[in-house]
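One-letter codes give the sequence; each number marks local geometry. A record appears below:


***
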Amino acid sequence: MREEQKSREKRRRRRIRNQIFAYLTLIVVLFLLVAAGYFAVKGIMKYVKNYNDKVNKVIEDAESSSAVETMAEVDDTNQNTADQNTIGEDTEGYVSAGIGEDPLDDLIESLLKDMTIEEMVAGMFMVSPESITDVQTVVQAKEGTKKAITENPVGGIVYLPQNFKSQDQFTQMIANTRGFSKFPIFMALKVECGASTDFGMEATAKASELTDAESVKNAYGSIAEKLAQYGINMNLAPVSEIVSEGGDASLQGRTFGSDAATAAPLVSAAVQAMQEKEVSAVLQKFPGTAAGSKTLEELKNSEFVIYDLAIKSGVDCIMVSHIKVSGVTGDETPASLSSVMLNDVLRNMLGFKGVIITDYLNDTAITENYSSADVSVAAILAGADILLEPENYQEAYEGVLQAIADGRITKERIHDSMYRIYRVKYKNAL
């Protein structure tokens, strides 16, 4: 009996020791998980901070802190936030799965939630520096630029050769402008491969002279490297059209040939070369100059072969022209203002999830038929994300705000575009 009691007591003590050990183990594991979460968030913060340093602190410290706090909460609860972060049908494919799988989603959402609708609308415009400064030719960025970009927090600035005087002058102007901007901003040029030496670029072979992917990568890689040195993070190139000899004179020498199957891998090579250097490529111009005379089936076997491969290669942005594609849309609406071309074809059929940019909205083909306000509203309703250089920025901006107030444009629609824009702006942050 005594031996049995001793045995039971021994088993009881062993059980207690095991329980204690289990509790201690649990505590250690929980501590390690919390510590891991802390250092994971701390690591993300480091990446974000490094990116912000690259863009001269274009986003305020308070916003960065808010982003980290939001990410920490997600990590601590170990919850999947995919459903919460799904923006809408236009962002299908950008599915958040919490900080463990896609911290970029959480960062973007934390930034956008602190923006006013006025700031978001301004963020959908890309304009010349002259459009917001009222200076005839901008060649420096000082107090006037600071005031202009503070009052008009546009999403991007596009520069022309007239803004370039020297490499040092241009670099300083870009750095100052980025530093003045409260939010991350696209700084854009249009530099195609070819003989042009605009912006102090070294001449390369023309697109029509480049016949293999390696030579294309070398040409556009050297261009992107120079742009990155200036602080430029977007290039309105390459030309993604096809043109036959004797065709559109404005495209001669600028395309990779007349055959879509041949041109497609070369366009994709140009995209990859630039985006590897953190310079966003912009295909120009969808659906193509010759598209006006083609049906949808004809486009699928020609121009769309190029776009399909470029989209699969991860191109950041696509510019849509003002060409009328009645064979596809059934009307005379410019492609840049057509929901059929932007949503039905480019988004749904071709599967593009990136940023759609309109062609220049100060083009006479637009200004003869639309006010700056009307065309900007129409472009957003059609599915455009960035409105490029309206004739009158202030009128365009106020027109969009009025359309939101009237209920013609929802705040969710603006949010969708800003989400896609920030996906591109921050894709290299983490």
